[in-house]
């Protein structure tokens, strides 16, 4: 197969591993800077150009779209889809997962365990929203945040109210969630590929840090999932429509609750913690499913 990978930084561990895995299985993989692509939106003749050359002949595309370029990245991916190139993850599914509110609504609709989550626009409703979420301690999140950025733990109702008012003053949308104290600063990331959990790790936050992101100094170790956690991860991926994703969960007293579904999960932490060749499993899955024009949405939605 001839594979395109949309990625702005070709030297990242995840991108290098995917390239190595593809080439080891006899494929060619070109890493294409998402922001340097440009499109001809022609009727019935969609075209894509990159560094002055027309992009054509690709069998599949692996979208590794950074959160800061989601809008343009999805436009490029939709163009690939309209050209009949098979996407590892479809544009519509990535768009769902990137919208934290939309993703929570979809997960809730499918009966998947979530922390109590509230959302409102009017600052006059702050106290009612805090009460709905169960009161402090609370986690306050920017809808557009990633890698633990834009996430604040408020220990008291007063501090929660101050943080919410500060965010609202900047006209940003926020989610307010209950704080799962019993998780003890740890979470679980399950890697789902083609409807199966292929690896899982437990991430523990750095000393004094409630966020467990590896980018923020957290550590990772292999973990055995319970049947409920495995089922929750698989159902979450299905709810988003993602073929490949990382599902972040917490162990609450009442069972597994999903915090986020990541459509471009990093591979370094989970591969090193588990010793599993995740990149190889992703390419193997792509070999099974990639067919010309097989995109469900054909760039629609």
Query: Under the CATH scheme, which architecture of the largest domain would be assigned?
Result: 2-Layer Sandwich
Task: Note the beta-strand portion.
Answer: 25-35%
CATH class of the largest domain: Alpha Beta
CATH fold-level label of the largest domain: D-amino Acid Aminotransferase, Chain A, domain 1
What structural class do you assign from the helix and strand content?
alpha+beta
Molecular shape = globular
N-end to C-end Cα span: 27 Å
Radius of gyration: 20 Å
Which stretches are low in confidence, meaning pLDDT under 50 for 5 or more residues running? Answer: none
Mean pLDDT: 88
Strand order in the largest sheet: 14-13-12-15-16
SSE sequence, one letter per element: EHEEEEEHEHHEHEEHEEEEHEEHH
- Sheet having the most strands: 5 strands, antiparallel
Question: What can you see in these coordinates?
Answer:
One of its GO terms (molecular function) is ribosomal S6-glutamic acid ligase activity. Mg(2+) 2 binds at residues 260, 262. By secondary structure, the protein is an alpha+beta fold. It folds into three domains: 2-95, Rossmann fold; 117-179, ATP-grasp fold, A domain (Dna Ligase, domain 1); 182-284, ATP-grasp fold, B domain (D-amino Acid Aminotransferase, Chain A, domain 1), CATH 3.30.470.20. It contains nine helices and 16 strands. The strands form four sheets. Strands 14-13-12-15-16 form a five-stranded antiparallel sheet, sandwiched between helices. The mean pLDDT is 88.
């Amino acid at each position: 197969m001839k594979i395109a990978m949309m990625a702005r930084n070709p030297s990242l561990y995840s991108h290098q591993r995917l390239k190595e895995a593809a080439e080891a299985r006899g494929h060619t993989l070109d890493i294409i800077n998402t922001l340097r692509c440009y499109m001809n939106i022609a009727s019935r003749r969609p075209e894509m150009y990159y560094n002055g050359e027309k992009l054509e002949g690709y069998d599949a595309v692996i979208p590794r779209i950074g959160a800061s370029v989601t809008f343009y990245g999805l436009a490029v991916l939709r163009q690939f889809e309209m050209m009949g190139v098979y996407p590892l993850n479809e544009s519509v599914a990535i768009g769902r997962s990137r919208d934290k509110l939309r993703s929570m609504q979809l997960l809730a609709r499918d009966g998947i365990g979530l922390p109590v989550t509230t959302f409102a626009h009017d600052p006059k409703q702050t106290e009612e929203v805090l009460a709905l979420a169960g009161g402090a301690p609370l986690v306050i999140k920017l809808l557009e945040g990633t890698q633990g950025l834009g996430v604040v733990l408020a220990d008291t109702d007063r501090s929660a109210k101050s943080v919410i008012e500060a965010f609202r003053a900047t006209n940003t949308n926020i989610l307010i969630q209950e704080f799962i104290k019993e998780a003890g600063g740890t979470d679980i990331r399950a890697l789902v590929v083609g409807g199966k959990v292929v690896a899982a790790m437990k991430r523990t936050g750095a000393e004094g840090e409630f966020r467990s992101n590896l980018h923020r100094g957290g550590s990772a170790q292999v973990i055995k999932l319970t049947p409920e956690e495995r089922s929750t991860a698989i159902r979450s991926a299905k709810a988003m429509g993602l073929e490949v994703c990382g599902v972040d969960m917490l162990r609450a007293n009442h069972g597994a609750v999903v915090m986020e579904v990541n459509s471009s999960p990093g591979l370094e932490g989970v591969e090193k913690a588990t010793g599993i060749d995740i990149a190889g499993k992703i390419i193997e899955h792509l070999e099974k499913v990639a067919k010309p024009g097989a995109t469900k949405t054909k760039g629609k939605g």
